[in-house]
């Protein structure tokens, strides 16, 4: 997803373009025989690098009012995963 927030009308078109670019990046990996986890990583990289989205930058506030976020990626083929938690930005 492009981040958990209410998208301002002025950014909706740009957000849609970013999501379509993420789909294109994932499809490029899969169409060459790549693994699903690599396609997901390619799509997420596109989303996180687009400044019209808050993916990778948007966070929830802790009870203390500090921004903090978590992230995870998992390969369903062998259940390997990588994660970070409690990242303060």
Précis, in short:
The protein has helices spanning 12-31, 36-49; strands at residues 60-61, 67-74, 81-88. With 89 residues, it is α+β, with helices and mostly antiparallel strands.
Any overview of this molecule?
The protein has helices at 12-31, 36-49, and strands at residues 60-61, 67-74, 81-88. By secondary structure, it is of the alpha+beta class. The two termini are 19 Å apart. The model has no long low-confidence stretch (mean pLDDT 87).
Key attributes of the depicted protein:
flat, three-stranded antiparallel β-sheet
Question: Which helices and strands occur, and which strands form pairs?
Answer:
Blueprint: H1 12-31, H2 36-49, E1 60-61, E2 67-74, E3 81-88
Antiparallel strand pairs: 1-2, 2-3
Helix pairs in contact: 1-2
Percentage of residues assigned to helices: 25-40%
Secondary-structure element order, as H and E? HHEEE
Q: How far do the termini sit from each other?
A: 19 Å
Q: What's the quaternary structure here?
A: single chain
Which blocks of ≥5 consecutive residues have pLDDT under 50?
none
Largest β-sheet summary = 3 strands, antiparallel
Approximate strand percentage: 15-25%
């Amino acid at each position: 997803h492009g981040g958990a927030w209410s998208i301002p009308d002025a950014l909706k078109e740009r957000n849609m373009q970013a999501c379509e670019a993420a789909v294109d990046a994932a499809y490029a990996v899969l169409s060459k025989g790549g693994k699903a986890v690599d396609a997901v990583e390619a799509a997420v990289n596109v989303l996180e690098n687009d400044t019209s989205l808050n993916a990778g930058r948007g966070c929830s506030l802790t009870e203390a009012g500090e921004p903090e976020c978590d992230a995870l990626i998992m390969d369903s083929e062998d259940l390997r995963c990588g994660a970070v938690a409690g990242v303060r930005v």
